[in-house]
Write a structure and sequence with these properties.
By secondary structure, the protein is of the alpha/beta class. The protein folds into two domains: about 230 residues, Type I PLP-dependent aspartate aminotransferase-like (Major domain) (Aspartate Aminotransferase, domain 2); about 130 residues, Aspartate Aminotransferase, domain 1. It has 13 helices and 14 strands. Strands 3-9-8-7-6-4-5 form a seven-stranded mixed beta sheet, with helices on both faces. α2 packs parallel to α8, α3 packs across α4 and α11 packs across α13. The longest helix is centred in the C-terminal third of the chain and has 20 residues. It is globular, with a radius of gyration of 21 Å. The protein binds pyridoxal-5'-phosphate (PLP). The site of pyridoxal-5'-phosphate has 16 residues, from α3 and α4.
């Protein structure tokens, strides 16, 4: 089954009781038992729910995995993966991580005795000196936020497996429409389904997908024991969102490409960060592991001041100034004040997050309307 069919039919079947085409929302905390300990299938809502289960199967299907798990948020899904580790274990990760992931690693798990190495992984050889007998996990994002760096998943997977390490890939930005990390050698795929998978800016949700049964069993144990599950209503919304993922992503990519080129040619714009440009440092890797380049774009202005960036984001009318990404509506963000404000200015500028940097999540509106909006804000 091809991807564009899987989003609609993959591991999804009409409901057995009445043939409902969409999985019903089983809004229940518990399930009647015929005799003590004899359940039909489910015993308690934290351990399992048919609507959540339908979503978990869909997650697995679209990521070419075997087992899916749904969580109450993206960071809850990351939290579950980190709970596979023990005190003394070490993790290698990127130096331009999503801010919430960075906070979870440094403010929660460091206190539990886990050590993190934040390394620039656009050049993979940088990670080799950090591998030792305590290393257990490599955690990457690609493209990264907000600089759109690209990491070679096949190469990281080869190194991970040579050293018996788990490789987890946060696939939130690319989505399985563009990139399928398990096929490239990753062991775990993680999603903030809040973004493109949900796609309508109406829920907070996380997901994990794996192929290995033993790993799935451990993660399921953690999901149930720690309890960061998502509810049946949100599971239904995510299922509905995923049905149109391929159609939305196609338009996100088309609009993204048009806007990236428009910005690149604009006299007031300095740099445009988008992996589809041939002069992007890892364009060849993006081409080899992604089927297209997505709708996330960052850019700086030639004036290069905080005021110039504020002026532009305030003048935008169709692009809403907001956190988050991946919804049908276009959003603009100012990383230095918003998503990356917690990182000291000097550190932030080392990875390229200047005061004049603006990040766009290009939506699926009319391309000409979006370009006109940028034109009036820039001019
Ligand atoms: C939003 C996001 C997360 C966290 O997900 P939540 O659903 O907000 O908890 C993790 N990684 C990336 C890349 C994100 O964009």
């Amino acid at each position: 089954m091809k991807f564009n069919t899987k989003t609609i039919h993959g591991k999804q079947h009409p409901d057995k009781a009445y043939g409902a085409v969409m999985p019903p929302i089983y809004q229940t905390s518990t399930y009647a038992q015929n005799s003590p300990g004899k359940t039909l299938k489910y015993a308690y809502g934290r351990s399992g729910n048919p609507t959540r289960h339908a979503l978990e199967n869909t997650f697995a299907s679209i990521e070419n995995g075997e087992y899916g798990l749904a969580f109450g948020s993206g960071v809850a899904a990351i939290d579950a993966v980190l709970k596979l580790l023990s005190p003394g274990d070490e993790v290698i990760t990127t130096n331009d991580l999503y801010g919430g992931t960075y906070r979870l690693f440094t403010k929660i798990f460091e206190d539990f005795g886990i050590k993190f190495h934040f390394v620039g992984l656009a050049n993979i050889s940088n990670m080799i000196p950090f591998i030792n007998e305590n290393t257990k996990l490599i955690w990457i994002e690609t493209p990264t936020n907000p600089m759109m760096n690209i990491i070679d998943i096949r190469e990281v997977a080869a190194i991970a497996h040579d050293h018996n390490l788990l490789l987890a890939v946060d696939n939130t930005f690319a989505t399985p429409y563009l990139q399928q990390p398990l096929d490239l050698g990753a062991d775990i795929v993680m999603h903030s389904a809040t973004k493109y998978l949900g796609g309508h800016s109406d829920l907070i949700m996380g997901g994990l997908v794996v192929r290995d049964k033993a790993l799935a069993d451990r993660l399921y144990f953690i999901q149930n024991a720690s309890g960061a599950i998502c509810g049946p209503q949100d599971s239904f919304l995510a299922l509905r969102g995923i049905k149109t993922l391929h159609v939305r992503m196609q338009r996100h990519c088309e609009n993204g490409k048009a806007i990236a080129h428009y910005l690149k040619d604009h006299p007031k714009v300095d740099k445009v960060y988008w992996p589809g440009f041939e002069d992007h440092p890892n364009h060849h890797i993006a081409k080899s592991q992604m089927s297209d380049f997505g709708g996330m774009i960052s850019f700086t202005t030639k004036e290069d001041t905080l005021a110039s960036a504020y002026d532009i984001v305030k003048k935008l009318k169709l692009f809403t100034l907001a956190e988050s990404l991946g919804g049908v509506e276009s959003l603009a963000g100012h990383p230095a004040t918003m998503t990356h404000a917690a990182i000291p200015k000097a550190e932030r500028e080392k990875i390229g997050v200047k005061d004049s940097l603006i990040r766009l999540s290009v939506g699926i509106e009319d391309e000409e309307d979006l370009i006109n909006d940028l034109r009036q804000a820039l001019d």
